């Protein structure tokens, strides 16, 4: 019997694709390097300052065959960044296995609010207060990226940093609309607490996607 589209989505053989594009990674450890981005629709974390709110409703993004997503990606780059939305809303096992079979490196940007699926070469964990990460992802994160919207976010960042491994790279990143106010505070905080690094959304300064 032929499987329904919903069954294929549930199995990760199709995913609600919002957009895909080849660009320069603008944030965190890999900033400045070329990568292919796959933005998956669907997110119920609901950050009020989210700059991709159109990704939240998965139903408006067409279920796309995972093999097609992979074929599009590897034409451009051997580094594929999966983001959202919240990509871990869906099972990432098939996507990452297929990417790796084509020789691609798999990166994910996630809030960690859902169980970790997939085989990842790099995990960027960006926790959100409204829906905290699952405990098992903390020790697997390669970088922790905490968004600073107000002064209270420094304490939250420290709470999150206490849960990751010693090798995890720690970043504080100003929320874009608050950057003029928060950057001086972040710079001062990092100078006093040098285990942290500053992350900026450099792609926005470069005026690229």
Automatic annotation (TrEMBL):
Classification via Pfam families: Radical_SAM
Alphabetic keyword roster: 4Fe-4S, Iron, Iron-sulfur, Lyase, Magnesium, Metal-binding, Queuosine biosynthesis, S-adenosyl-L-methionine
Highest taxon above the source species: Bacteria
Note on cofactor: Binds 1 S-adenosyl-L-methionine per subunit.
GO molecular function annotations of the record: 4 iron, 4 sulfur cluster binding; carbon-nitrogen lyase activity; magnesium ion binding; S-adenosyl-L-methionine binding
HAMAP family for this protein: QueE
Entry protein name: 7-carboxy-7-deazaguanine synthase
UniProt lineage: Bacteria, Pseudomonadati, Bacteroidota, Flavobacteriia, Flavobacteriales
